Amino acid sequence: MNEMAVAASDTVSSALTSCLANAIDIYNAVQRQSDTNLARLFETLVSSVQCVKDLGPVPGNVSLIKFACIQIADDLLVHFQRLDGGPVDVCGVWGRDDLSALRGRLGEVLGLCQDVLPNLRDICRPVLAGSQIHEPEYASIQPTEKTIDKGPEAQNVESTVGVPAKKPPRLAPAGLINNFILESLAYKSMHDRESQVTEAHAKTLDWIFDNSLIYQSLRRKFRDSFTAWLNGSELSPIYWITGKPGSGKSTLVRYLLQHPVALHHLRKWAGKKTISTVGFFFWTSGSMQQRSQTGLLRYLLHQLLSSDPNLVEKAFPSLWAHLRQLTTKERVNFALDWAVGELQAAFYSLLDAALPQTNICLFIDGLDEFEGDHMQIIDFFKGLTMKHDGSLKLCLSSRPWDVFERAFGSSVPNTKLQDLSYEDMYRYALDTLKTDPRLRRLLKQDQDQEATRSLLTSIVEQADGVFLWVRLAVERMLADHKRRNNMTTLSAEANGFESLRTTLDSLPTELDDLFAKLLLEDQTSSDITQTATLYQLTQAREIVADFIRDESANSLTVWELAFALLEDDDGLALNRQVVKATDEEIEARCQTTIRSIKERFAGLLNVHVIKPVGNMRFADKRQSVAGLVTTSKVVYIHRTVRDWLVQSGASRLASFQDLRFDSHLRLLRSYVLRLKHPLEEIEHHRRLNEWYPDIALAMTHARYIVNDDGKLQRKFLNEMDKTISWLWLTKESDETDHWAKSTFGSYEVRMKAPPIHNPFLCLAVKFGLTTYVCAELANMTQNVADGDDGSTPLLAYAIEFLCSRNKTIFPTSSPSLVKYLLSHQTPINPGPNHKYKHFETHQPLTPWVTVLRHLRDAKRRGWIEYYDINPEGTARWVEIVREFVKYADVEAIVPRDTWDPEISALGVIDMLVRTYGSAEMESIKLEMKKSLESWQKAA
């Protein structure tokens, strides 16, 4: 960095930290209600925030700090303008929720300052040294006036006061309720990680339980201590297995969990009680459920309760009783959204009920892959064993991070796996080399075994306890040996060993360096481009699956990838008719894809064949051979591979990629091609649920598209619509029947609702496909609609998720899409004051009134944040509302509903300003007042 750049960076850092320090001083003065001159503090804040606003463009995460400083400072200034003087006024302006949120926001920004840039950190330290955020003193701070959203259950209770009691409902069978709760606890990816963990190589871990003579003292110590831990209660209830990345921790945990001798030892511990074992494998590369405490608890509850369903009532007493009283229809429509708190309570209740008769041993792998506070999960596990000591054991594994070393390093029995694996790695390397017939002969011809021992010893020593390194090194040695010699003649043993040694000596001993060699240094530029394509496709799917919360789709299948790899398939996607895929097509596509994965990713990506597990409702009843191949998942062989790619490898791969390539566009195309290559006999039907998961993925991929020089997004989306429409079994009695209509509410609701014009276009609006919607409207030839039929206009769909996604698959409302719709009003896209009927209640509305209702609801439900520093939060929806104000009736009235009284448009905005003290909301209020004054003068 040159001197000018350093000076500019220091100027930015100084401005940001000065503004932040001033905001902290104001927070401390307000929460203490001290005699500090607030007016002087705010004068300083005005000056410092102006310096921040005057800064030019700043890079990366520094821009987030800049945005946050401006948001917080401007909101504080709005608060200050509401002060009339005196400490009493402070209580009215800064409520408890407000002040608590301010403290949290300042803490967030401080954390960003410490993490983003070294020079920023250096400047932060002296400036912020005296600006500590003090704990709030709530005694005299009043709670913020805020309407509480009591939820549907409380509302139903209130609405039935004074109504005669209904006849008690007929109770559902207990077994049915047990199954309902068990199915609600299950999730699609719950068995994925365990099934993907590499099984122990033949006999490599058998020494743990086979009573064989062990010469290595560390191995002997581990076997004795672990067996003693399984057998009795003398040792700590927690056993910790730790080891370097790639040392084989997950493989060991799976081995211990599934080994019958381990269960035999645990039965000794349980005595006359029964024994139950469950294993959970955290997986940072998997779905959110696979790396969260919610997923952990759902899995443990599901497994333990499945073994004894009679305990379901004990674990969920209130829920169980409530579900029994529901009718079948009510139960079908009852959605459970599991939260950590209720799952923890259920787990505690389950243990209280089960442990008097059953001892439980949990095997939990990969604590370091838990996405959350590691101390919190440590305390959770320790708390369980303290309460139930003698009846509950935990075998935990993790990397040797400081947080785990402090928690388990000296307080519980433990072992370092890399200290135990020398002989296992030696055996694995020998057995793997012997899989090649000619190398097997070569090793056999080494009569004194000196050359063999020397080679294998070098392999194991270079691995330094990392089993993954041995696996990759031996695979590369085999591949290079075949390539060099073509395995035709080996004139002398030395030549064979020399070939293997040459490869071994070329391999870096650090895993990250080995990954770089395999994927970058040992491949040509064109090969690396293909590798980049594979990685970017897998990464694109992770992003989209995470967004729509579909954990089953987190990893691409071979069949999905097969139609995303080749650029030449663009024409096929647009021109092919729907024809069942032949066995030859399936085999050719899948084999080409699998070969590409193996060659371009050098074994770092693996093809995992999905096997149905247990009796989950998600498991298919049968799977054909073609089905197994086409549904096989493409996964990383180990977490360290993904870690390296995310941290550094991805950017290096991207530098070789064609700038026109777009992974999301390819995956959208993949779905079109898969629709046109059905694996089963073609059937025209109306079962939208069979298509919709892939439709949601495809349309979300479409929203992420950036590079589309060929304007293919629109073509592929229309081809998808056309293909599904062809497969859809239309009703002859309904000429407007369309598959996309079925995505808008239940059949009963749609039958009574106003018509849905252009349903696929409406769905595209909900998915936020701005480019597609704008192009469709611009090219629409028949732009006519019946303005009096009450149908929902596009604008209303565009603002459906104004302040919150409401846990749906849809994105929050897009300012760019709303802006286009407002500025391009047509008969099919009428303006913000156009009247239509609510889809379910049939009450009259306009898009503008709907916006105001969304804001009122968001305030009541707590969806609006104080001092919102997220650019996609308040700043985003304020931009939308500001655009509406340009065209809308600012004198509009929002009618009363079940929860809120009638209120004017200006009243809604004023309510938000009074509640949140937001500068952005204040600016909208001023604009509306100006519009009202102009209208009144004109009148």
Automatic annotation (TrEMBL):
Signal peptide stretch: none
Q: Does the entry feature the keyword Heme, yes or no?
A: no
In this chain the Nephrocystin 3-like N-terminal domain maps to 224-399
Q: Where is the DUF7791 domain?
A: 525-676
Key words, A-Z: Repeat
Q: Which InterPro entries does this one have?
A: DUF7791, NPHP3-like_N, P-loop_NTPase
Name the record gives this protein? Uncharacterized protein
